[in-house]
Specification:
Layout (H helix, E strand, L loop, with lengths): L2 E5 L2 E4 L4 E8 L7 E7 L6 E6 L6 E3 L7 E6 L4 E6 L8 E8 L19 E2 L3 E6 L1
Parallel strand pairs: 2-11
Antiparallel strand pairs: 1-3, 3-8, 4-5, 4-9, 5-6, 7-8, 9-10, 9-11
């Protein structure tokens, strides 16, 4: 069975940091594109970061670029999202997801479409207070 199990999240104050984890089973995170998405109440799910399996590069939405970092630990088969300098507008439920499509593009947007990902984690609430 292919699964992504998330951990992390919580309540922090603006300017603080959090790290989300996404542990995979039944798939190799080095061979799948792993994306991070978030959904705030009343809003569409937004792609914010992705780690590409085809070139090893990471891609970010402008809203988080320079503050969030995606990385992986092959030995643990886990992908992380380090979130620094958090802002109240970062408040949302965060999801990791996996996509096994070979994707080669210079555009971040090509790695951040929720509809391209077929395996999803359970979600984690991140709340940032001002």
């Amino acid at each position: 069975e292919v699964r992504l199990v998330q951990s992390g999240g919580g309540l922090v104050q603006a300017g603080e940091s959090l790290r989300l984890s996404c542990a995979a089973s039944g798939l190799n995170v080095d061979e799948w594109n792993i994306g991070w998405f978030r959904q705030a109440p009343g809003k569409d799910r937004e792609g914010i970061a992705s780690l590409s399996s085809s070139n090893g590069r990471s891609y970010y939405a402008n809203s988080v670029k320079g503050r969030f970092t995606v990385s992986s630990d092959s030995a643990k088969n886990t992908v992380f999202l380090q979130m620094d300098d958090l802002k109240p507008e970062d408040t949302a439920v965060y999801f990791c997801a996996a996509d096994d499509t070979l994707r080669i593009s210079p555009l971040a947007s090509d790695y951040l479409r929720p509809r391209d990902y077929r395996v999803w984690g359970q979600g984690a609430q991140v709340t940032v207070s001002s």
